[in-house]
Sequence to fold (196 residues):
Amino acid sequence: DYDIVDVPVGGAIKARITPEELGSLEMIRLTGVLNDDDIAYFTQNASSVICLDISSVSIIDNNATKSTENNTLDGGFNSLTSLKEVYMPVNLKVIEGNAFSGCESLEKVYWGTDSQLEVIGMGFSQDLWYNVTFWGPFSYCTALKSIDIPKNVMTIKTSAFYGSGIEEVNFAEDAAIDVLEATEYYVTNNLGASQP
Fold:
């Protein structure tokens, strides 16, 4: 059974659950509204989480209100090394940055049949010597062997799955995808994944 943590407004997770309580939970369902601070607090303290259900949350910027939710997950849940499965927000339209990067035990991502996801993006950084490092929302998720791509996804960016264990990519028959950038995992693993 899931432990449910309702966050009625962005920035309120600290008032809803202590770091100690959060660190002891393995199956967590978050509901309500999450902002960047909530996600950072969760990631810093949810050291035992195995299953995370965020399917009914709204994600907003720190300076936004629920009425201006941006439906973009750009980092935050990265490096949750015990996380094995995640249920994604149905209203999420863009996932990018290092959203779940480094979640080395992550095996399954559930999008939901009504997923509004349109873009699986990427992130990058550049040092003083102009060396660029790329990562994606599922980079270095080495236990992630298979992923289903929701039907509304139109773009999958380079390095979205960089360094992951991806061996199989499944597109919906009625998929909307129109851009699929060449990524290292398609080339090196010779997936044979077809674009509808």
Remarks:
- Helices lie at 13-16, 19-24, 36-45, 184-189.
- The two ends are 38 Å apart (CA to CA).
- The longest strand covers residues 51-59.
